[in-house]
Amino acid sequence: MTDFFAGEIATELLKMLFKISHKSCMCKTSADSLITSINELLPIIQEIKFSGVELPAMRQVQLDRLSENLREGLELARKVLASNRWNVYKNLQLARKMERLEKNVWRFVNGPMQAHVLADVHHLRFQMAESFDRLENSAKRVEQRLGAMNIGVGSGGWMEETVKRVEVEKERWETSLVNLLGVGMEVGKRKVKEMVIGREDLGAVGICGIGGSGKTTLANEICRDDEVRSHFQNRILSLTVSQSPNLEQLRANIWRFVSGSDFVAEGVNDVITKWNPQFNLRIGPRMLVVLDDVWSLSVLEQLIFRVPGCKTLVVSRFKFPTVLSDTYEVELLKGEEAISLFCLSAFGQKSVPPAADANLVKQIVNECKGLPLALKVIGASLRDQPEMYWASAKKRLSKGEPICESHESKLLDRMAISIQFLSKKVRECFLDLGCFPEDKKIPLDVLINMWVEIHDLDEEEAFAILVELSDKNLLTLVKDARAGDLYSSYYEISITQHDVLRDLAIHLANHGNVNERKRLLMARREAEVPKEWVRSADLPFHAQIVSIHTGEMGEMEWFQMDFPKTEVLIVNFSANEYFLPPFIDNMPNLRALIVINYSTQNATLHNFSVFSDLANLKSLWLEKVSVAQLTESTIPLKNLQKISLILCKINNSLDQSVIDLAQIFPSLSQLTIDHCDDLIKLPLSICRMHSLKSLSITNCPNLKEIPTNLGNLRFLQILRLYACPTLKMLPSSICELVSLKYLDISQCINLKSLPEKMGKLSMLEKIDMRECSEIWKLPASVESLESLRSVICDEEVSWLWKEVRKNNLHVQVAEEQFNLDWLDE
């Protein structure tokens, strides 16, 4: 507290010294000198006062002495002001005391304080080298921002108008960022191009720099450069490695690219290990492999394929001199470039507007230390905020921290300003993003389901929060080319987040006692349950969300833990065999369960019996697993409303001879089956699931048959049969779906026709039938589709729909889209 009192005393003393300077002739010289010295001291004292930093013991003692001198000076000044001018002897004594006070303050200013300044300069240089050390990954898509929502505009409504803005905003931000980086970007681009295409003798080269400094932006510019693309004949492969890489999958992807083979057999890594490129592959076309976010030398050594004609560009925080022939180090932004980038994010223009405090803007820009990500995120958080908010933010950014604190904490405490003034509900949603693994796309469907269940939101409000977070550059929305209209599946939209923002969410979530945390998270993939959890397992964990990230786990590797309040469990793993955590039994309030396997192969799940007590479960997401038979005895999920099976092996688990879906899931309203290649036909029991409102069977290449009684689903509103190429016929009973509003049969390339009585679908609003090349005519009954307002189709059949005599019918000719992004997952 000494700094507080010293500051108050110095301020009061300064006021009195001005009075003494005008009143007392004997003390005027000393008073003027003291005014000069205290004016130099006061800003330093004020900075210490507002920093909240505890000073080292030696400095604290010296500050105590200064405080005592200033306190004595204050008493002396009061005596001088109170002294009668005719009392010459007393005034002479007071003048001598003022001289002694002046010398004491002068000695401090020119002695210990100068040494402190030198020490601080040294510390500042050290901090400048480390202050952003834990910023991770790249800013490759932080530039994307969704525009403000436009509720109810256009044919697709609020969701369509919002998502349509993504690509425009992305292009604008990427172009602006490159332009703003100016000379620095051009210099970096020229140097990297020289390494990549100008030096044939360099096999592996690198781009390095601190996290968020623009490394990936520069690498993306290289990949988009016309000269580079021409040099490599567009043969460029870009992969993200991350801190927890799946080496098998990464090596397989590179093998496919280098060898030109689309087939990778089991045990491919053994083949790659033994393969000698010198004898098995002749010099072919030039190729460029870009490895982004590389953290480990041992990992990098396994990912560099020294193939004739193949060059590797490594993007990392580190230089790896033993592996890379040459490395370009990205420089941070300086001067006007930093101000321009900040202003674009904060004001929507490249300069400080006249109404803004230019000095305050520069001070905040200086606190960002030239880091593009910090400039953009902090700028966006200050946009449209009052000046007092800006002043408060500047003070928080400039707070000093003890040198012994970790560099990660320094960075994250700075970045935390970006979310501090979000509303409570939006802030909670941001913190939920820390539950998912780094460098992985988060399916929007998973996130929306989570937020609806635990934050008491409806889907529209949840999406609006997502837009707000995107507007503030706290996440990035990535959309499929098909997504964005009113009936789009949320599965077609995913979320990415820069690792520093994910780390921020984890950092804030991990405060407090582990048993009392609202979110219990495993930040990185680990081989076992964290020891902190095991040590605290004697007491219940009160977390609302639990997120696990492990490799293969057997029954004996788990511990019994009690989770009486948990509502969401996220199980992330990478393995071929996985024993579900037995403590799921101890989650009586579990409402959403997400199980995602990041291995290259489908995992076999064991311990399905844990589902037996999940009476409150409402949402289930299973990804890249082999689904066990769902028998009545093991899964009485009476309240389950949503099931999503993504990239799963069904293994006859939905067969009607094994399971009666209508009986086991009486409340199910949404069923999604996507990329399940062993699904041949849907079970008849689906037709008795009368609560079903949305049925999505997509990207299932072997689906041949739809139940003939599907028309019994009287409440079904959305039917997606997208990309089911072996499906040849729709049952006529589809015409009995009286509540159907949306029908998607796109990319069903062998579908021969639409049902003749299709006109009975009086509620149908939209049809998507792009790339249905076998459908050459329409049934006459389509004239009776009274609610139909939108059709998406190929040009060859668009004229048929345009002849339908409906004034409000919009016919959209679709462009062919090919999206294999899911393969990277």
TrEMBL record:
Keywords of this protein's UniProt record, alphabetized? Plant defense, Repeat
Organism of derivation: Hevea brasiliensis (Para rubber tree)
InterPro entries with a match to the protein in the record: Apaf_helical, LRR_dom_sf, NB-ARC, P-loop_NTPase, Powdery_mildew-R_dom, WH-like_DNA-bd_sf
Can you name this protein?
RPW8 domain-containing protein
Ranges of residues in domain RPW8: 1-147
Looking up SUPFAM superfamilies in the UniProt record yields:
L domain-like, P-loop containing nucleoside triphosphate hydrolases
The UniProt similarity line reads: Belongs to the disease resistance NB-LRR family.
